[in-house]
Amino acid sequence: MAQKKLIYKEKLTQVGYWDYNEVYTMLYNWLKDYGYNISENAYKEKLSGGGKEIIIGWEASKKVTDYFKYKIELDWHILGMKDAEVEIDGKKVKTNKGELEIVFKGTVVRDYESRWEDKPFHKFLRGVYENYVIRGTIDEYEGDLEDEVKGLIADAKAFLRISGS
Question: Are the C-beta atoms of 107 and 3 separated by less than 8 Å?
Fold first, then answer.
């Protein structure tokens, strides 16, 4: 079984005006541009008097080596989404209004093909290999993934014009 370690988790919230299609496309393209394969594991949409409620689950993964893989999960929860119009530079622009919440999780997956799992001795060797041979490499990959997830969140905040961290 692959070894997984959650490296970074952060929640981004936006209440007010934002364009659903543009946010969706921006995040999707960012992950694609960084070499991730994206699967949408969940999509639920419910209509109510207060607007749409949408739940989306993305899992993006990227092989780094034959032993390491990065996984970024995005759990979207949109409440009370309604179509809206705003005026920008004297022009009316269609957008959305509501509450957007996205939880970002970055995980490093080691031995993702479970090559070191078939025998107890192989598990022991994996422990020695990880703790003494490639400890620095593991730390480096964990730091790189944390930087990528923080970069994705920073770009999403800039796109949504959210200040602070």
Answer: no
Domain boundaries, given as residue ranges, for the chain:
3-160
Concatenate the DSSP letters of all residues of 75-113 into one string: EEEEEEEEEEEEEETTEEEEEEEEEEEEEEEEEEEESTT
pLDDT band at 165 (very low <50, low <70, confident <90, very high): very low
- Measure the CA–CA gap between 84 and 152, rounded to whole angstroms: 27
H or E stretch including 3? strand 3-18
Which whole number is the average pLDDT over 148-152? 97
Question: What does DSSP assign to residue 134?
Answer: S
How many angstroms separate the most distant Cα atoms in the chain?
Answer: 70
